[in-house]
Design brief:
alpha+beta; 60s Ribosomal Protein L30, Chain: A; Phosphoribosyl-aminoimidazole Synthetase, Chain A, domain 2; 11 helices; 21% strand; globular
């Protein structure tokens, strides 16, 4: 037995992994010019090195984020139907989890590195699924004007085990580098103060937080993720709607030099996350947006309203905190950029919490 064959039998078979690596390399080459609009270019001599050619001395920000459990739903549906379209948005979901974390500092994304860590080599040999996932990474980079500069695709038999009935599901994560140019665009959140207004940008739906709760509830239903919703879609289709990108929104606000005191992605912690700052501020939410159908369905299944508000984005995927005199201009800029923005509340002095007036509830910060 050759060393390579014994290694394959131990769980790492490069003959099965290599086709996926080649697919991702093709995606990488197609994305290399995307950050040019931010004055970031590939080096002519070293194709994995990028250089800034703009007029500023920029600041740089790097973050690492994972998708969590969302692709388990895609795997379950694929296992049941053989339809690879369920992976069409998974790369977008994965990338956006990291992108929103650079946006909150006023940075714009320029490069991304991915990791697709599967529990076995066999996962990589499925051509239809691999193509759908790779193309979704390309779309995410195109939306973000960002280059995919590298990645890792290990087979980790002894570490990654999918929860049955799914046979195999990889852990998806990645790292984004963002640029702040000019450096004066840096947003630290320190300017946040009572009197600031809270602007909410609508989500596309579930995005990628609260997935475990959705899976738990869905798998207890007779039709599971094939359960039909009032809009005609299945529960699985609604859950897998791609995460909305807020890159164009933040870029437009920065280009119009809007005075922004803080930016916040509506990710883990639900609506309670609005109380992100450690200072004694009360965040009074006076009005809200239409609640996405999936969240309404979770309520019908018996999830309490408070659990929903502390778990899901509830219809808002990104928050902007700014002075009152910037509200109207921000709403107009957001609309021109293709976003639905709403002036949903105000910051006051007081106990650190979110007062959600539309439902008469008080929400403590995440972890409390």
């Amino acid at each position: 037995m050759t060393q390579e064959k014994e290694y394959a039998q131990a769980g790492v078979d490069y003959t099965k992994i290599e086709p996926f690596k080649r697919l991702m390399d093709k995606v990488r080459k197609r994305t290399l010019s995307f950050p040019n609009r931010r004055d970031v270019y590939i080096n002519e001599e070293a194709k994995d090195v990028f250089e800034y050619r703009g007029p500023y001395k920029p600041l740089w920000l790097q973050v690492q984020e994972g998708l969590g459990n969302k692709n388990w739903i895609a795997e379950w549906l694929y296992q049941e139907t053989g339809d690879s379209r369920y992976f069409d948005g998974i790369g977008i979901d994965t990338v956006m989890m990291a992108v929103v974390d650079v946006l909150r500092r006023g940075a714009l994304p320029v490069t991304y590195t991915d990791e697709v860590a599967a529990g076995d080599s066999d996962w990589f040999k499925d051509e239809a699924r691999s193509k759908a996932l790779a193309e979704s990474y390309y779309q995410a980079c195109q939306i973000s004007s960002m280059a995919l500069v590298g990645g890792e695709s290990p087979a980790l038999r002894y570490l990654i085990k999918a929860e049955p009935p799914v046979k195999s599901a990889p852990s998806l994560s990645g790292s984004v580098v963002g640029i702040i140019a000019p450096p004066e665009r840096l947003i630290t959140g320190q300017k946040l103060k009572p009197g600031d207004h809270i602007i909410g940008a609508t989500s596309s739906g579930l995005h990628a937080n609260g997935i475990s709760l959705v899976i738990k509830r869905a798998m207890s239903l007779p039709e599971k993720f094939f359960t039909k919703l009032p809009n005609g879609k299945t529960l699985g289709e609604e859950a897998l709607i791609s995460t909305r990108s807020y890159v164009a929104l933040v870029e437009a606000l920065l280009e119009h030099v809007v005075i922004i005191h803080a930016l916040l992605p509506g990710t883990g912690g639900g609506v309670g996350k609005i109380a992100f700052d450690k200072r004694p501020f009360t965040y009074r939410i006076q009005r809200w947006v239409e609640v996405p159908l999936l969240f309404q369905f979770m309520r019908e299944l018996g999830v309490t309203l408070k659990d929903c508000l502390k778990t899901f984005n509830w219809g808002i995927g990104f928050y902007i905190f700014l002075p009152e005199n910037e509200v109207q201009r921000t709403l107009e800029i957001g609309k021109a950029a293709g976003y639905e923005l709403y002036d949903i509340g105000i910051i006051e002095k007081g106990k650190r919490c979110v007062i959600f007036e539309p439902e008469g509830l008080t929400l403590l910060p995440p972890g409390e």
